[in-house]
Amino acid sequence: MIEYDGHVHSPFCPHGTKDTFEDYIKQAVKLGCKGMTFTEHAPLPPSFDDPVPDKDSAMDLSDLNHYITELQNLKEKYKNELDIRIGLEVDYIEAYEEETRLFLNEVGPVLDDAILSVHFLKINDRYTCLDYSPGMFNEAITASGSLEAVYDRYFSTVLSSIKADLGSYKPNRIGHITLVKKFQKRFPASFPCLQKVLPILTEVKKHSMTLDVNGAGFIKPLCGESYPSSDVLRKAAEMKIPCVYGSDSHSYKQLGSGYVKLKDQVPLTPPAVYPE
């Protein structure tokens, strides 16, 4: 039984499936889930140019109100069966903090929950999508000079996301902090990663934030582990950092991904209520 899934996508995801909200909800109830947060990719800052070929990394701004309205109706419809929370997965993008803050100030009052994630890295004055494809990841390695330089750039950007002033509606949960390992079977690291992640855990603890414990990596053929990885989870548990399970589902069939493997590694709790 999954107590809570705090990272679920929706039919509003341009690079996901067209599974309906109710497909996800009914599957969650079937799995014995008590609650879930829909965390669709928030619209990107208006002046940011999505670097992926199909420009489909996030929900379009014109769809945001429809997304929220549909979930408000479903919260009421299923209130006796499932704790449904309206959320977003917000991208932290270096140099776009002000646009992100303004967006959060607008949408924050109607959200129940949110995640702050890093997908985009600025390398040599150009942005790349870290997890789009092995090919794009390889281009990032070439541009950075080494695999380790990409890891360092990613972890420094995650650290910046924690420290950034994004206003009073800044998400309190940091998303999949070892996403940089998504293609590790093709690009294996010859250097230890835990020491690189420790400053992130320290800063999460300092700011009383929580971690997204993401099961999606288990079903990614070139990854094979959770985000964060087990060594990082052990350290997070030792530091008593609250951890929220998320399947990162882009299809209702992916709900519960990795949960069985994760529930014995670190205490998993439902997300806290988003700031009012």
Automatic annotation (TrEMBL):
- Which CDD domains does the annotation name? PHP_HisPPase_Hisj_like (cd12110)
- Swiss-Prot/TrEMBL catalytic activity: L-histidinol phosphate + H2O = L-histidinol + phosphate
Show where the PHP domain sits: 5-214
Tell me its EC number(s), please. 3.1.3.15
Sorted alphabetically, the Gene Ontology BP terms of this entry are: L-histidine biosynthetic process
The pathway that the record names for this protein is: Amino-acid biosynthesis; L-histidine biosynthesis; L-histidine from 5-phospho-alpha-D-ribose 1-diphosphate: step 8/9
The domain of life is: Bacteria
Q: Which GO terms describe its molecular function?
A: histidinol-phosphatase activity
* An annotated GO cellular component: cytoplasm
One matching Pfam family is PHP_C
Say yes or no: keyword Cytoplasm present: no
| Keyword flag Ribosomal protein | no
Q: Which UniProt keywords apply?
A: Amino-acid biosynthesis, Histidine biosynthesis, Hydrolase
Q: Which family does it belong to?
A: Belongs to the PHP hydrolase family. HisK subfamily.
Q: What is this protein called?
A: Histidinol-phosphatase
Which taxonomic lineage is given here? Bacteria, Bacillati, Bacillota, Bacilli, Bacillales
